[in-house]
Amino acid sequence: MTPYEMLRQHIHKTIQLSDEQFDYFFSFFQPVSFKKGEQLIHVGDEVDCEYFVLSGCLKTFFVNDEQKMHILQFAMRTWWASDYKALYNNERATVNVDCVADAETLCLHSEEREKACKEIREIETFLRWRSNKGYISLQKRILSLLNNDARSRYEELMHQYPELYNLVPKHLIAAYLGVSRETLSRLYHSK
């Protein structure tokens, strides 16, 4: 499937655009490839774009004062990634985004996003819907972290995203779940 078809299919799950509208919106995206380990966003960077993932996997994370990594999100095929606080508030990045596996993305810059929203009302609807889905997922994740033990969090993640276990190194899954690599190994082998 081409990048054009992937994005169109993704958007058309939520809104319908005419061919002309979609072609115009698609013209704002720039294809960008990243290699495994490459950073897209560093803490302190200016952030003016978000990435739609066509293939591969990105992760959004921060490292605390004790040098412990905390992963906020994995972004796989048809997911979006950026530092949204920095992007929407015109601030410097407070999180990092890097490449877990070689990735092909489409980059949408803020200026183009805003132009598309002003000119095509349906795009604004799509982006609002997408943001709302992100908030819902974040709330669900926070509640899981607050209420569930490590086993429940692991089972929930593997049920929801089974492909993650083969795509992402185990120490990163452990960091996402907030457990040690050893604990993750025990959880995996005791299922």
UniProtKB/TrEMBL annotation:
It comes from the Bacteria. Pfam families: cNMP_binding. This is Crp/Fnr family transcriptional regulator. Residues 17-94 form the Cyclic nucleotide-binding domain. It comes from Olivibacter oleidegradans. PROSITE patterns: CNMP_BINDING_3.
